[in-house]
Amino acid sequence: MLEKFERIKLGHFPTPIEPLKNISNYLGGPNIFIKRDDCTGLATGGNKTRKLEFLMPDAIKNKAEVVVTVGAVQSNHARQTAAACALMGLKCLIILEQRLKDPPDSYMNSGNVFLDKLFGAEVKICPKNENIFEYLEKIIENIKSKGTKVYFIPGGGSNSIGALGYVECFNEIIKENNKYNFSQIVHATGSAGTQAGLLAGKKYFNSNISINGICVRYDKTTQEKKVYDEAKKTCEKLQCKILEKSEVLVYDEYIGPGYGEPTEGMIEATKLLAKKEAILLDPVYSGKGFAGLIGLIRNKKFTKNDNILFIHTGGAVSLSAYEWAF
User: Which of 67, 86, 88, 222 fits a 20 to 30 Å CA distance from 308?
Assistant: First the structure.
């Protein structure tokens, strides 16, 4: 069934799974492994590449002349969308939302923002006093009024088309799982498409691996609803059994002051992975995701015999925009 959906190759798949032996020893168990979706290849890699492999063919099918997407200033999704459009020869317009209270110039101009422009995308920053969705609608209507065909990709590439990328990721995981016997998957959850795709994959492939999302933006109730709604639509698309609401597991204790705002846990996790495993996390998603994993281990949510897979969603490009936080 998954094969019937059109897909364009944009990344290097399957991504490797590696043991984090030094971190596992440091934390005193369980056994932690990492799925290197920071190594997907497109524009330094990241989880959005999987989603774009399904979204870009849909844009082409809809005869798009310009692809418009939205995200926070240091959006990894925006960078990968800009790169995918460059490959496909499509114009790309990125609308960025300012979510940090008082960001330094480096946050507003370096990291992902610099790369968005390098890939040839047009970048607009939504004024702080305007609602992002109203601002976005106004811009899209203006482009359409000139007779230009617009294809809109929601933030994070998170819809039932984009989520197919993480159904495919789950497929990669279970193909290797006889070697690892994972009992738990942990990852950062924000716009909901990654977790929704993994949960739909769990249903589609009839697996019992538990999937734990560490919230980076919304509270538990909001995030559970977002993930469930998206996963349900993806299950419907795949014509498989619909998941139960109780299967959506999220933890919101690791967000800190808000989306993209640094936390002590994120800084600890990022430094730890760099020093113990020579792997770079990012301050917004994977850093908080791994901080959540450390927190859950310290709070005895897992047993020492659990084999846990952490999905590295990429984004280390934004570290240069966050030097001030460290």
Answer: 222
> In the chain, how many domains are there?
2
Return the structure tokens found at 304: 């020492």
Task: Give me the torsion for CA of 212, 44, 261, 130, rounded to 10°.
Answer: -110
- Torsion of Cα atoms, 135 then 119 then 152 then 137, to 10°: 10
pLDDT (tens digit, 0 to 9) for every residue of the chain, 326 residues total? 788 999 999 999 999 999 999 999 999 989 999 999 999 999 999 999 999 999 999 999 999 999 999 999 999 999 999 999 999 999 999 999 999 999 999 999 999 999 999 999 999 999 999 999 999 999 999 999 999 999 999 999 999 999 999 999 999 999 999 999 999 999 999 999 999 999 999 999 999 999 999 999 999 999 999 999 999 999 999 999 999 999 999 999 999 999 999 999 999 999 999 999 999 999 999 999 999 999 999 999 999 999 999 999 999 999 999 999 99
Whether 320 and 261 map to the same domain: the answer is yes
> What CATH number is given to the structural domain containing 131?
3.40.50.1100
**CA-CA distance, 112 to 131, in Å (whole number)?**
22
31-36 and 17-19: which strand pairing?
antiparallel
Name the strand (E) or helix (H) holding 110. none
To the query of whether residue 286 is one of the catalytic residues in this protein, the response is no
Q: Read out DSSP for 25-79?
A: HHHT-SEEEEEEGGGS-GGG--THHHHHHHHHHHHHHTT-SEEEEEEETT-HHHH
Same domain for 315 and 288, yes or no, is yes
Whether 94 and 125 have beta carbons less than 8 Å apart is answered as: no
Domain end (from 122, 156, 190):
156
Confirm whether pTM is higher than 0.85.
yes
3-state secondary structure of 145: coil
Q: Which of 166, 158, 159, 163 is nearest to 14 (CA)?
A: 166
Q: Is the domain of 219 the same as that of 187?
A: yes
